[in-house]
Amino acid sequence: MSSQSNQKGRYYIITPMRNEIRTIETTIKAVLTQSVLPEKWVILDDGSTDGSEKVVAKYVKDISWIEYVRLEDRGYDFVGEGVANVLNYGLKYLEALPSVEFISKLDADLNFSADYFERLIEKMNADKNLGIISGHPYIMKKKVRHFERHSAFFPSGTARLYRACYLNEIGEFVTSVGWDTVDILRMRMKGYTTRIYSELPVHHMRPMGTRKGYLDGMIRDGRNNYITGYIPLFFISRAIFNARYFPFLLRTACMLYGYFSASFQKLPKAVTQEEYAFHASLQKKRLFFKKIDT
């Protein structure tokens, strides 16, 4: 279906981008074919040096609802906290525009079906208590889909849809790694629900947590777990469970190193004491195989 004939409205998209020349055009084409188009799509360039902006420029000149904003280049890729800073900039940028029902955080390395946002909006319409939802990202290995591991209540940070009024309640994104865990905690502490939908696959063209390399990603996973308030017993159980996945015991060792080195350094946590206690209560339910949602 041509983007010129598609239905318009009800949501904005914020996309942080830094050096995504290999994937950004695929993501743009995926958005252009949506059966329900966004009112506005703001692509925030966080210092690209690979020519990504030239790809975006081809579309911005002809499509009024896509905006490209070049941010100041800090000179390096700031994983986690940098993304949160860009998202908060995007939220402030959108304040000048008319209100919409939903706001999406969309990465610049994704591909998805033409009805992706339409179906997310249908989910939101069907359950007014939903605050954050997403499809389920996967990577391709030897022409086979491998879905990233997410709990049912944990929507992927790659392609989320937020209910705008609930997002306003929890405030801006915490400027730390793990921002996409903290907003789930805050949303659930308000009594709202969060979901990931496996029937809505999202092709993640770069595997989660590999921007700075696979080894760094596994260590960062453990460090992020400490920062976002994983209690030791739950984290150790999670690290042991992850030995099932390539590169097996090395994955577990990297996660343990990341978590306990962060603990030894007493890195500041991204959660308040109240959020930590709430997160601990969720983890204890999972340790005893209790459902998060009834």
Describe it.
- 40% of the residues lie in helices and 21% in strands.
- It has 2 domains: 7-204, Spore Coat Polysaccharide Biosynthesis Protein SpsA, Chain A; 214-287.
- It has helices at 24-32, 52-60, 81-94, 116-126, 164-170, 179-189, 214-227, 232-241, 249-265, 273-287; strands spanning 7-8, 11-17, 36-37, 40-45, 66-70, 102-106, 110-112, 130-141, 144-147, 159-163, 193-204.
- It is an alpha/beta fold and 294 residues long.
- The N and C termini lie far apart (39 Å).
- The strands form 2 sheets. Strands 2, 4, 5, 6, 7, 8, 9, 10 and 11 form a 9-stranded mixed sheet that branches. A two-stranded parallel ribbon has the order 1-3.
- Helix 7 packs across helix 9 and helix 8 runs antiparallel to helix 9.
